[in-house]
């Protein structure tokens, strides 16, 4: 039995600055097994994974690899064992080519003289092959700086596929991916599995857990709740194991929307080469979904509406007034706010406290004669922390110390407090756990109920379906469908998004 | 120009209170602390002066501190002056980087009973008691022009380039002013075509000189009143194969010029006796401390001989024109 | 460097003698020192570092080389000594930055002071001059039509460019500068990779120092004081980003050449020298701005 | 925030050690009057460092401060020479500094070129213009009225140097500005994540431009202080000041890459470096040795402040255990 175990971690403990975040967790992986790791934001999943990947050292506990006790002192030690990890936040080298990013640390080389030369041709060819396997068209010579967050995620995945892996750890690899890319990823993972690789898979999309994994380890507050066979579970049961209570994501009790006058009329909005002739209306109180494959141009449309990347032509009419939105400040002043998809780049300042991040857009209102009011700010941000259930010790904690999902709530919080007219949410629940997701859904719905018009861009189809009153579908920079409630289904959306009839698991 | 460097030529009428200073260990003297501050350290010129000063300091019962900024900065000199005052120095002898910036600090020093003299580069007269003047601007400027003019005697218009140190150096500027005036009045065939700067860096000087030679093809002479500039100009002339075609002269230390004089790139250059300047400064310091210094007339500085004093200025004498023979003899 | 071409064209039209091959070679000659030092800065700045002491390190080398030559050492030993002194100066920076993890700007500001002080100590405040002709020959030899120093500059450029672009270690230098965390996750040993550029910079300061004294014929205790910022400027003008991750060897040398052209052009335009720096600043601005807008345009077009 | 306040405490410690060492070795050093009056030597640097802190925290750098100082000094001098009231001339010179800073800021935010290179260029340009003006004005300009000279050399209540008081008041204002105003908050945020600030509706370009404008103001003020202290202004009075000013900021714990630092640290940094020169002068250390000592102390001071960082890093087992793993696999 025990020789069937490739990796066996016993009683791992890790604390940061006196706070124990992983409290004696076991995990066992067998070759060819796909094992899910689930839990709320901040449950300690990434921390556990980082101990297996050599990023963090456990305070106590031991890790056995193929029966022998090992110290995984740093990432290259993990690599030597055959343990490769796709971390939660993509960390690419923006000024280097995609291919170099993929191979960094393992650059194909020819030895000649004292130097080790990079075999560039081999590198580019290899990289192209990897992306072909991923069924993605990617210019491997372009600089990583130009990639969207989803493309970055694909590069991260590609990095782990160039090795002979014994254990492949995937920390929320699908958070930015749409169904299409996710399917491709799963096909590859299944093949690796059949070759004997053990997979440890983290996701907040429980459907994926059920479709990919045979076992699931549930964590809550740094502890292991238990290990279960997925065949013996269903989604609701799993959620209650994670959260300790029942949650219904599809709570659709919504006020009927009366579509009288649109608050926002967008006509023929164009910004080549990103999108063209985008025309749609948005009504007060409506939640409008926007679906599409990665790179369809949704984010670009949002950025045009928010003014950070203004459109070249076309018209934006807000509350009957034609606007030329040239920058974010103007958009915000008009009541348009935007939760960006790349939260590390555009959403938060990681090394500043939660409070500072949450109050930045409202700073003018929160200060008197330009003098800040720390107490007022604290009160407001504590309120937001409570309302959004941000898991933190204090509002003065640095955002970098929060789990990914909680960071997302911070971004969300800074806009909710501004009482906007139009809220554009770009992947609003990327990396957010089920519990928080339902809270965010609740907030989105109640905002909409108070008359806020919401545009939700999401690659998570169940999310689009759960939230939207109406769905726009984008494909290659154009709006290809406007589906009302009656016509909403995953199949229908995917058909428009891909242009072919797709099957969805 | 700098108003401080005034001409003392023709000042012979002033003979009323000639007195001889009693200096050089005849009487039992008390040791005094003297601070000697050059414009900057690390330049052979000032190092030469310090050697001259050191050679006479002990016989004058002077405890000498020689220290200056590493770059020619007036503000560094001010903070040095302040700390010497705080440490109870008797005399401060400074070669000023700026005639006016040092004035408040020096006046404050005098108010506390410290004797202040300047050497090599003066401050406004109200901020010091004596200025030991190495040579008048007239002397330097006209000599440089004169030897150049003699070299080109009988020729038509001669284009001349000037390579100075920095645009703000007061000594350089006053010398260049005199050169211009002398040319205008006596040698109208000389024609200054450009003034460039070496920023006191050999490579900058070399590049500047090369560029001058190329940009002004008719230029026949380079005069550099700066000890970095002369060897740089000579080097440029050699590099561009213009030896014999471009005449190089200026103010420089003999030891620097030896190689260029030896190989014939430079025939003549100008300087005063720098160690003697340092030594004279020490004699003046001693006399000022003792209260035996005359305000005008003649001042006898031990073995150095006697020097003319007028309006609080002690004049070292006229600059020397060095040629191959005298360069070989000089050791500074 | 499109602007550079433009500048050269303007010069050609206004003063044809400027672009004579001999003159161009002279410009290259006058940029050798700054060019080599700028090459040293590239690797350093790519790793998000900076070396403010590079001119002072070169200054020490000029003095040591000069003194050693005057003391009658054989010329190969003199050169070797110069390179070693440069490398040691660079290594000292490197150790404090990579191993002790002190901020590069502070370390090199500190060593700038220390090295400048040492320059006076080495020479006792005197200049180094009247050098033996074997040493001076290093500055004036020619290979066919190429002056020796230019040849060595080109050699340094070639080696460094190839090293940075085509070797594994070179790519690791970029990786660290781009995203040190990601590089660590990829198993790159940070300490070693951060150390290397400083060593290289020191070594190049050694090369530059030997050439400087051999070419200029003398050196003073303040030699190189003006080159610390100029070398950085050349590298940055050539496209090296002070926030790390980007920069090329060729760019740095082109940056140095641009500075050289500007200096010479100003004299050719018969501009009073007090205006030189203003014109230099203005041309740098125009050059960098026009290049960056050009680059932006190209990127847009490509997208 | 937390890390930078640890830093400033450490910095304060370094300052105390420095003072103790100097008073132990120099008999006359701990004379309060001497100490107070010696601050006159470095207050101009301190004033410029206060605003440089803002520039650096916002992710920029300003190499042109010395040249702006020279140019403001010349503008002041020339205006006064042409008969303007000396105080009005001073005010105009300071405002003119703001204009120069505005130009810096606009070049940077409009063209997107690196601040290092933009301000290096204006360092040349402003400095050169100052030289040109001074060339026409015959070197230095002097002879200001006695009342004006009091700014640089006078004492309030007989012992408190006016320059020092100006610096302290300004430090309080700047400290308040950084820690307690929305402007300061935006500066810090931009230094941490400019993109995120932009996406949050912060007028990034305007906030950044203002840091340079303020840097210009203080350069103008420094020119006035120094002009009064030296009783003259000249075209190269600000030469080589930039590195000193930046050094003060770095010693004071301002992060070169922006985002963190505080004004208290800058104040302590000003005194550490200023007193260092004073103390070494009193010890009769030659300027050559001073240069070496200053360099070593600079590295040591920061090294000590880094100790906690280094130790926390050491606690983790490091690369040594890689071999262990290699044996296992
Ligand atoms: N470097 C750190 N310093 C301090 N606290 C940390 C650090 N890293 C993580 N934490 C804390 O540890 C807890 C667990 O974080 P972790 O990232 O492991 O959660 P997670 O389960 O991966 O959550 P998510 O689903 O949101 O990614 C969180 O409360 C987080 O705030
Ligand atoms: N080559 C590029 N250069 C500059 N910016 C780019 C480039 N490619 C993408 N972007 C930026 O990346 C972001 C996302 O663009 P994209 O068109 O892929 O959006 P999307 O369809 O919403 O993708 P997703 O489905 O991942 O949200 C936008 O901010 C866009 O401006
Ligand atoms: Mg996580
Ligand atoms: Mg998107």
From TrEMBL, chain A:
SMART domains: AAA (SM00382)
Organism: Alicyclobacillus cycloheptanicus
PROSITE patterns, per the entry: ABC_TRANSPORTER_1 (PS00211), ABC_TRANSPORTER_2 (PS50893)
Keyword ATP-binding in record: yes
Domain ABC transporter: 7-246, 258-501
Name of the protein in question: ABC-type sugar transport system ATPase subunit
Keywords per UniProt: ATP-binding, Cell membrane, Membrane, Nucleotide-binding, Repeat, Sugar transport, Translocase, Transport
Automatic annotation (TrEMBL), chain C:
Domain of life: Bacteria
Protein's recorded name: Autoinducer 2 import system permease protein LsrC
Subcellular location per the Swiss-Prot or TrEMBL entry: Cell membrane
Keyword hit for Nucleus: no
Self-association state and partner proteins as the record states: The complex is composed of two ATP-binding proteins (LsrA), two transmembrane proteins (LsrC and LsrD) and a solute-binding protein (LsrB).
First-listed, main subcellular location of the protein, grouped into a coarse class: membrane
Keywords: Cell inner membrane, Cell membrane, Membrane, Transmembrane, Transmembrane helix, Transport
Pfam families: BPD_transp_2
Biological function: Part of the ABC transporter complex LsrABCD involved in autoinducer 2 (AI-2) import. Probably responsible for the translocation of the substrate across the membrane.
Membrane topology listed for this record: Multi-pass membrane protein
Naturally occurring in which organism (per UniProt): Alicyclobacillus cycloheptanicus
Stretches that traverse the bilayer: 29-47, 52-69, 75-95, 102-123, 143-164, 193-215, 251-272
Record InterPro entries: ABC_transp_permease
Lineage: Bacteria, Bacillati, Bacillota, Bacilli, Bacillales
UniProtKB/TrEMBL annotation, chain D:
Location in the cell: Cell membrane
Main location: membrane
Sorted UniProt keywords: Cell inner membrane, Cell membrane, Membrane, Transmembrane, Transmembrane helix, Transport
Transmembrane segments: 6-30, 42-61, 84-103, 115-135, 155-178, 210-231, 237-256, 263-280, 292-311
Membrane topology, as annotated: Multi-pass membrane protein
Protein name: Autoinducer 2 import system permease protein LsrD
Native organism: Alicyclobacillus cycloheptanicus
């Amino acid at each position: 039995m025990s020789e069937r175990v490739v990796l066996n971690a016993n009683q791992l403990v890790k604390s940061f600055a006196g706070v124990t975040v992983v409290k004696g967790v076991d995990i066992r992986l067998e070759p060819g097994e796909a094992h899910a790791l689930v839990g709320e934001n901040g449950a300690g999943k990434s921390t556990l994974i980082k101990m297996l990947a050599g990023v963090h050292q456990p305070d106590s506990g031991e890790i056995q690899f193929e029966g022998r006790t090992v110290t995984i002192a740093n990432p290259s030690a993990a690599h030597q064992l055959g343990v490769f990890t796709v971390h939660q936040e993509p960390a690419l080298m923006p000024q280097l080519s995609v291919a170099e990013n993929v191979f960094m640390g393992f650059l194909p080389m020819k030895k000649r003289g004292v130097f080790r030369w990079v075999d560039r041709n081999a590198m580019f060819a290899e990289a192209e092959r990897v992306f072909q396997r991923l069924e993605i068209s990617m210019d491997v010579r372009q600089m990583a700086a130009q990639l969207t967050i989803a493309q970055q995620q694909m590069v991260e995945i590609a990095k782990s596929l160039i090795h002979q892996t014994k254990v492949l750890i995937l920390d929320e690899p699908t958070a930015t991916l749409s169904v299409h890319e996710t399917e491709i990823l799963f096909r590859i993972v299944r093949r690796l599995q059949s070759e004997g690789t053990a997979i440890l898979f983290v996701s907040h999309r429980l459907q994926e857990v059920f479709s990919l994994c045979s076992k699931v380890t549930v964590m809550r507050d740094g502890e292991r709740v238990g290990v279960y066979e997925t065949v013996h579970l269903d989604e609701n049961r799993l959620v209650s194991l994670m959260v300790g209570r029942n949650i219904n994501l599809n709570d659709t009790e919504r006020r009927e929307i009366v579509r009288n006058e649109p608050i926002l009329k967008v006509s023929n909005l164009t910004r080549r080469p990103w999108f063209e002739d985008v025309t749609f209306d948005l009504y007060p109180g409506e939640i409008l979904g926007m679906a599409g494959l990665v790179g369809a141009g949704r984010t670009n449309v949002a950025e045009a509406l928010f003014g950070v990347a203004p459109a070249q032509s076309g018209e934006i009419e807000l509350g009957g007034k034609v606007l030329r939105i040239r920058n974010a400040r103007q958009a915000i002043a008009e009541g348009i706010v935007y939760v960006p998809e790349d939260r590390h780049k555009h959403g938060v300042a990681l090394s500043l406290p939660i409070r500072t991040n949450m109050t930045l857009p409202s700073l003018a209102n929160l200060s008197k004669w330009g003098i800040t009011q720390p107490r007022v700010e604290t009160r407001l941000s504590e309120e937001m922390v409570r309302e959004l259930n941000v898991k933190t010790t204090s509002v003065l904690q640095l955002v970098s110390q929060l789990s990914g999902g909680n960071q997302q709530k911070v971004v969300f919080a800074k806009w909710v407090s501004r009482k906007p007219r139009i809220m554009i949410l770009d992947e609003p629940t990327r990396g957010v756990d089920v519990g928080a997701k339902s809270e965010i859904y609740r907030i989105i719905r109640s905002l909409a109920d108070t008359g806020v018009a919401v545009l939700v861009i999401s690659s998570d189809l169940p999310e689009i379906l759960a939230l939207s009153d109406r769905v726009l579908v984008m494909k290659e920079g154009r709006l290809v469908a406007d589906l009302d409630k009656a016509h909403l289904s995953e199949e229908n959306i995917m058909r428009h998004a891909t242009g072919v009839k797709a099957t969805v698991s | 120009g700098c108003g401080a460097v005034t001409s003392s030529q023709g000042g012979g009428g002033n003979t009323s209170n000639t007195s001889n200073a009693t200096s050089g260990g005849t009487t039992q003297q008390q040791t005094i602390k003297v601070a000697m501050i050059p414009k900057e350290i690390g330049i052979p010129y000032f190092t030469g002066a310090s050697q001259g000063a050191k050679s006479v300091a002990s016989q004058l019962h002077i405890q000498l501190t020689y220290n200056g900024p590493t770059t020619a900065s007036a503000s560094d000199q001010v903070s040095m002056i302040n700390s010497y005052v705080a440490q109870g120095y008797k005399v401060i002898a400074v070669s000023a980087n700026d005639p006016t910036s040092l004035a408040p600090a020096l006046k404050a020093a005098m108010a506390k009973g410290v004797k202040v003299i300047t050497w090599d580069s003066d401050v406004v007269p109200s901020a010091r008691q004596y200025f030991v003047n190495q040579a008048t601007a007239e002397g330097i400027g006209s000599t440089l022009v004169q030897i150049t003019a003699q070299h080109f005697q009988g020729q038509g218009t001669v284009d001349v380039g000037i390579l100075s140190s920095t645009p703000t150096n007061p000594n350089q500027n006053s010398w260049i002013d005199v050169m211009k005036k002398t040319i205008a009045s006596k040698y109208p065939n000389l024609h200054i075509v450009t003034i460039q700067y070496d920023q006191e860096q050999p490579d900058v000087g070399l590049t500047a000189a090369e560029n001058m030679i190329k940009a002004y093809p008719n230029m026949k002479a380079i005069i550099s009143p700066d000890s970095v500039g002369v060897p740089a100009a000579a080097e440029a002339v050699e590099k561009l194969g213009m030896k014999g075609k471009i005449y190089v002269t200026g103010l420089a230390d003999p030891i620097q010029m030896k190689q260029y004089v030896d190989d014939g790139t430079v025939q003549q250059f100008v300087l005063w006796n720098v160690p003697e300047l340092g030594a004279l400064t020490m004699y003046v310091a001693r006399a000022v401390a003792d209260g035996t210094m005359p305000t005008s007339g003649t001042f006898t500085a031990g073995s150095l001989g006697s020097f003319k004093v007028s309006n609080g200025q002690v004049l070292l004498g006229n600059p020397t024109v060095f040629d191959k023979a005298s360069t070989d003899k000089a050791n500074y | 460097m499109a602007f550079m071409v433009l500048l050269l064209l303007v010069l050609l039209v206004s003063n044809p003698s400027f672009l004579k091959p001999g003159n161009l070679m002279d410009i290259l000659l006058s940029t050798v020192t700054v060019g080599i030092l700028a090459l040293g800065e590239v690797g350093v700045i790519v790793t998000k570092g900076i070396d403010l002491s590079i001119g002072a390190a070169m200054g020490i080398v000029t003095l040591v080389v000069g003194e050693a030559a005057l003391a009658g050492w054989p010329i190969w030993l003199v050169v070797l000594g110069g390179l070693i002194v440069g490398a040691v100066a660079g290594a000292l920076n490197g150790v404090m930055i990579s191993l002790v993890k002190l901020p590069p700007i502070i370390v090199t500001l500190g060593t700038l002071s220390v090295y400048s002080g040492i320059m006076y100590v080495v020479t006792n405040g005197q200049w180094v001059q009247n050098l033996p002709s074997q040493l001076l020959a290093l500055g004036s030899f020619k290979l066919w039509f190429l002056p020796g120093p230019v040849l060595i500059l080109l050699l340094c450029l070639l080696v460094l460019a190839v090293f940075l672009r085509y070797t594994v270690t070179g790519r690791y230098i970029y990786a660290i500068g781009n995203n040190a965390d990601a590089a660590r996750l990829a198993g790159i040993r940070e300490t070693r990779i951060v150390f290397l550029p400083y060593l290289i910079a020191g070594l190049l300061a050694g090369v530059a120092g030997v050439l400087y004294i051999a070419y200029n014929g003398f050196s003073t205790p303040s030699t190189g004081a003006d080159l610390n910022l100029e070398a950085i400027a050349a590298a940055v003008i050539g496209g090296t980003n002070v926030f790390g991750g980007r920069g090329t060897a060729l760019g740095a040398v082109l940056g140095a050449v641009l500075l050289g052209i500007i200096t010479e052009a100003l004299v050719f335009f018969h501009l009073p020298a007090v205006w030189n720096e203003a014109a230099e600043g203005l041309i740098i601005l125009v050059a960098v701005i026009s290049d960056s807008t050009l680059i932006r345009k190209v990127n847009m077009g490509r997208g | 925030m937390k890390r930078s306040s640890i830093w400033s405490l450490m910095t304060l410690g370094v300052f105390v050690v420095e003072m103790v060492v100097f008073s132990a070795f120099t008999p006359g050093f701990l004379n309060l009057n001497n100490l107070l009056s010696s601050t006159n030597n470095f207050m101009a640097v301190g004033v410029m460092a206060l605003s440089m802190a803002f520039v650096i925290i916002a992710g920029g750098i300003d190499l042109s401060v010395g040249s702006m100082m020279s140019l403001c000094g010349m503008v002041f001098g020339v205006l006064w020479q042409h008969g303007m009231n000396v105080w009005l001339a001073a005010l105009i010179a300071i405002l003119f500094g703001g204009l120069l800073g505005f130009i810096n800021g606009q070049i940077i935010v409009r063209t997107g070129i690196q601040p290092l290179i933009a301000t290096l260029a204006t360092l040349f340009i402003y400095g050169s213009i100052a030289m040109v003006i001074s060339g026409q004005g015959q070197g230095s300009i002097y002879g200001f009225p006695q009342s004006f000279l009091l700014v640089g050399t006078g004492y309030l209540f007989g012992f408190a140097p006016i320059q020092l008081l100006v610096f302290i008041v300004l430090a309080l204002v700047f400290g308040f500005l950084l820690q307690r105003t929305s402007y300061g908050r935006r500066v810090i945020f931009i230094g941490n994540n400019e993109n995120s600030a932009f996406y949050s509706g912060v007028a990034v370009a305007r906030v950044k431009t203002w840091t340079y404008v303020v840097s210009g103001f203080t350069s103008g003020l420094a020119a006035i202080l120094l002009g009064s202290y030296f009783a003259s202004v000249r075209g190269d009075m600000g030469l080589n000041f930039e590195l000193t000013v930046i050094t003060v900021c770095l010693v004071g714990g301002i992060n070169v890459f922006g985002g963190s630092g505080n004004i208290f640290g800058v104040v302590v940094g000003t005194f550490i470096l200023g007193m260092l020169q004073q103390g070494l002068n009193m010890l009769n250390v030659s300027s050559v040795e001073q240069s070496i000592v200053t360099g070593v102390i600079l590295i040591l001071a920061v090294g000590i402040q880094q100790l906690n960082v280094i130790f926390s890093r050491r606690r983790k087992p490091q690369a040594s255990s890689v071999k262990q793993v290699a044996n296992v696999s």
